[in-house]
Amino acid sequence: MNHQNFHHILFMSALVIGISFAGGCTTHVVPVSPSEITITDEGHGVLFGKVHLTRNGQDPSVDLQWPREMKWWVEDEPHGKRFLITHLPINGPFAVKLPAGSYRVTDISFPSARGLWHTVLPTAFTIRSRECTSLGTSEIEMHTGFFTGWIIRNVYNEQALLQDDFESLLETKQCPTTVAPLESPVKNVVRLWFHTRESSRH
């Protein structure tokens, strides 16, 4: 085993242990369609956006075998609450209902046949009671090798790009909307975390 592979395995082991401990106090959340979102719940708001990802030049609408979705580990920083948002699309819109708070995405993962590819793209946003928060439209380009690769995100906040997907949410339900100021463009490393018994639980 060479020096580089040893450090990669050591890093992945630390990541597995850290996420496993965090999983015990994590609330699982899944996206729902805009028509299923209600704005009447006191203390909750809606996060929405749109994603289009390509991997190694392949588009998900053609023949991209993986990823089919992504997961976000999210922390409500002032209260120390953790959320795992699963089944987020890599090619389309999403809407998620969350308690009011100030959030930061601490990990983004993409499932593959060999394991989970992990990265962090600076993503912070605020959820206000009975209001909507837009993450805009994210164009994500990912290139992967055997152990590592890179990922870049460009964010576009033109409301017209989201209007067709969230018309019922924004107009019919009259949800006051704030746009989260995401850094763009941003580039980071993506690393493979091999499947283990612990990782299969998430």
The rounded Rg comes to: 17 Å
State the secondary-structure class: alpha+beta
What is the helix fraction of residues, given as a range?
A: 10-25%
Count of alpha/pi helices: 2
Structural features, described:
With 202 residues, this protein is of the alpha+beta class. The chain has one domain (3-201). The chain has 2 helices and 12 strands; from the N terminus they run αββββββββββαββ. Strands 1, 2, 3, 4, 5, 6, 7, 8, 9, 10, 11 and 12 form a 12-stranded mixed beta sheet that branches. The model is unreliable at 5-23 and 197-202 (pLDDT under 50).
List keywords for this structure.
16% helix, 12-stranded mixed sheet, 202 residues, disordered C terminus, alpha+beta
SSE diagram, text form:
Blueprint: H1 3-22, E1 26-29, E2 44-55, E3 69-76, E4 81-89, E5 91-99, E6 101-111, E7 115-119, E8 124-127, E9 132-144, E10 148-156, H2 160-172, E11 177-179, E12 186-194
Parallel strand pairs: 1-4, 2-9, 9-11
Antiparallel strand pairs: 2-5, 3-4, 3-6, 6-7, 6-8, 7-12, 9-10, 10-12
Short description:
With 202 residues, the chain is an alpha+beta fold. The chain has helices at residues 3-22, 160-172, and strands at 26-29, 44-55, 69-76, 81-89, 91-99, 101-111, 115-119, 124-127, 132-144, 148-156, 177-179, 186-194. Strands 1, 2, 3, 4, 5, 6, 7, 8, 9, 10, 11 and 12 form a 12-stranded mixed sheet that branches.
